[in-house]
Amino acid sequence: MAADLIRLTATEVVALLRRREVSPLELIDALGARMEEVEPRVNALPVRFLDRARETARAFMARIPPADPPAGWLAGLPVAAKEFNDVAGQPTTFGSPIFADAVAKENDYTVATLEASGAIFVAKSNVPEFAGSNTFNPVYGKTRNPWNLAMTAGGSSGGAAASLASGTQWLAMGSDLGGSLRIPASYCGIVGLRPSIGRVPRGAGLLPFDPLWVEGPMARNVADLALMLDAQSIPHSRDPLSLAAPAVPFTRALREPKPPRRVGFTPDLGLSSVDPEVADICRRAAARFATLGAAVEDATPDFSGSIEAFQTLRAALFGTLRGELLPKERARINPAIVWNIEKGLALSADELLRAERERAKLYHRVAAFFGEYDLLACPTVAVPPYPVEQAYPTEIGGRKLTTYIDWMFLTFVITLTGCPALSLPCGFTKSGLPVGLQLVGRTRGDAEVLCAAHLLERELAIAPQLPVDPRP
Questions:
Q1: 470 belongs to a structural domain
Q2: Domain residues for 401?
Q3: 133 occurs within a structural domain
Q4: Tens digits of per-residue pLDDT, 404-432?
């Protein structure tokens, strides 16, 4: 029974909960059994609190009258929080030895929102130290890719993606600054959405007016992704950018999805090199929109100036959030993070002003593009998953890279636009590693992106392959 439950989608499990054909306690036990089976090899969920979850589940069930279905979008579904998010009574270390003993006193807004929507938290997923796109840290160690345990799961939401792919979660929380949600989604063959700014309320530990960092859903398929986004889309008075819930729930929008009429595809956004195999897989997947009646053309907005602008604004964010740690804790911080913090602290007013001007010009160019096209499609990541022992890629197709985030350009320049962006599994390399197609929509066009991805997902038929047993 436990193995059968693990194979179901989140949407199917929630339907069982609503009909009272399964209880949250049974689901927690099923996840616990699966964790014992795969976690020693994958290390996606290093913080697990199943007994606490069982107590929460009993209290949740006691509040429901016998004749009523469970409340909330998730109806008692067990969920994992990302390690960066506070869960009351559990550690929040950011993967850093500096905070190895830190325990959260209360839930952050994103966790509280999901609990109010019927989620029961059972674990926290692994992350890189503070940030990055290979999930390893000195507190919890490496997370491995279930499709090939020698490879990275990506990051920073790498534990979340690996847990979904290996069947230890039905839904998982992610967050995204420069691709931290989309890259692990691509690498682990699952679906992840960087939603519009304000769609999901963020925790108090982030800058309240920052437009770069967002929280978002991760799932095994698009319908489950829409379900989680509905559960997360609640305005919060402590997040000044948070939006009202949509008039039409995302799950309802998927019932009658409309295909895009015109799709622009680009292998590289006109910016840098992309692995030829990845580009070819993504091009063939994007061309499948034509079977849905869409015109698919080679087209992209002008992204000139966006790489430098993001590097500057990311550095400013790191300097603001972590700059105070350097004087006392430099020796205990990953050197790549030290570099980013120092870059932020050394920025000149001219650099900051130029970055803001470039972001403004980019936004208007992208808005004009979406006056003609419904969707922009490109690879999510320029390279396929790489060895977990390697900190980050240092070249693409023989071209040397200069910083530890250069290879992430396809996601981080999209961050600057504020547009919703979804990574959808679209194929596999010859060595059997997943590749994601990034689908970008117009400002606040989250529902349109979800609908387009839902239709293409049916064409590609990759989602039914999940979850996978960890592969050596």
A1: no
A2: 2-465
A3: yes
A4: 889 999 999 999 999 999 999 999 999 99
CA distance 397 to 327: 39
Average pLDDT, stretch 188-193? 98
What pLDDT, on the 0 to 100 scale, is given for residue 1? 64
Residue 472 maps to a domain: no
The CATH number of the domain holding residue 429 is 3.90.1300.10
Tokens of 281: 């897989």
Which residues does the annotation mark as catalytic? 82, 156, 180
* pLDDT at residue 206 in the model: 87
Q: What is the pLDDT of residues 382-402, one digit of tens each?
A: 999 999 999 999 999 788 888
Q: Tell me the per-residue pLDDT of 81-96, one tens digit each, with 9 for 90 and over.
A: 999 999 999 999 999 9
